Amino acid sequence: MPGLRVAVIGGGWAGLAAAVEATLRGHAVTLYEMAPQLGGRARRVDVGGLALDNGQHILIGAYAQTLRLMQIVGVDERRAFVRTPLRLSGPDGRGLHLPAGAPMLAFTRGVMAHPTWPLRARLALLTAAGAWALRGFRCAEQTTVAQLTRHMPTAVRQDLIDPLCVAALNTPAREASGQVFLRVLRDALFTGPGSADLLLPRVRLTELLPGPAAGWLLASGAQLQQSMRVETIAPSRDGWAVDEAQFDRIVIATSAVEAARLARAVAPAWADLAAGLRYEPIMTVYAHAEGTRLPQPMLSLSSDDERQPAQFVFDHGQLGGLDGLLAFVISGAQPWLDRGVDATREATLAQARRQLAPHLRSPLQPLQVLTEKRATFRCTPALRRPAGRIARGLFAAGDYVAGPYPATLEGAVRSGIEAVDAMGDAA
């Protein structure tokens, strides 16, 4: 394909992936972003003189396209991440710990070595995993995660299934898609050595990709238009018009709501589908306890809908941040958001004081509660998601676009690359 004039509207991770990929293929790229900073919902924010992230994002070894993109723009994985085998440890240090090695063997060894599950529970999980593998990690489209795992022992569901589900899909197990959950498990646990490894960022999210990608794009001849909201797109004699500028192809990589606004005049049915998605919030409670160092950079916490909001806590002192800075993550946070920020903060601090008592070296002081009300779409069974192709020469990219993954960084990056792949079909 000869070099095309490509407009990418939106500078989140999907838009950056599309812009980098299109530039690599020799296209002339202009990236539009309405905000003054790039990164979308995965970016750095500054609060009270502290550099924080707008939520905590974990990568795993199976995020092949995200890691490839970072390598292209010059990110050194060893400097940017703390990489460890999968460890879902509680505050007491016990939990599911996968050793290095071949995926199936590592999973089996990790499950059989679990220190608190009875033998019956460990065998039940291995039996279920074997059955899922035999079925190609597929289930009926209407099945929820709760239905998929209903015969598992309570301890396995509470300690493993429910936390993994809400972390990966940001949707409670009783409402989450069993099919998408199985796809995540397949790719994370069974695709190759290191696929289940945790990659915990030790730099802020803006420095992890948006900053390096912006520098790479500028050095490669792309144009970046920040603090600029695109008002209209429309077909033109030469291809497509973005406001007054002419392009051969457009990739809309904004939020689904903004994409629906831009595409409505061209593809109303697509816009209706994008605008109709429902969302689930994520809340992050930041607090500080001087001198505190947790046993691991990330710990899982016992959580419920009544008095214990957070499912995970991150120790930023072990991730390149301020010593004693702790981030408590509440996924599937709508019930807590309904109670209000103040109530959620107090419940989280009380939970932390109970569960982390042996590790806190000073009183826990609240810093900030960050709320992303539309953090991810609700990943429910048989959900219809908008296609990546909107019209001839017009494409969508974003973690909400139809695909096998939930709303993750990898899903966003893949959608951007796939939009560029599809440009050849529109020639």
List keywords for this structure.
FAD/NAD(P)-binding domain, 34% helix, six-stranded mixed beta sheet, Polyamine Oxidase, Chain A, domain 2, 21 strands, 22% strand, 15 helices
Give a quick rundown of the structure.
This protein has 427 residues and is α+β, with helices and mostly antiparallel strands. The chain has helices spanning 13-24, 64-72, 77-80, 103-112, 119-134, 145-148, 154-169, 178-189, 205-208, 210-219, 256-263, 268-275, 334-339, 341-355, 409-421; strands at 5-9, 28-33, 44-47, 50-53, 59-60, 81-84, 87-89, 95-97, 198-201, 223-226, 233-236, 239-242, 245-247, 249-252, 279-288, 298-300, 312-315, 325-330, 365-377, 389-391, 394-396.
Radius of gyration in whole Å, from Cα? 22 Å
Q: What is the CATH class of the largest domain? A: Alpha Beta
Q: Count of DSSP E strands?
A: 21
Which ranges are low-confidence, i.e. pLDDT below 50, for 5 or more consecutive residues?
none
CATH topology type of the largest domain: FAD/NAD(P)-binding domain
Give the termini distance in whole angstroms.
Answer: 8 Å
Q: CATH superfamily of the largest domain, called what?
A: FAD/NAD(P)-binding domain
**How would a crystallographer describe the biggest sheet?**
6 strands, mixed
Trace the largest sheet across and list its strands: 10-2-1-14-21-20
* CA-based shape: globular
Structural class: alpha+beta
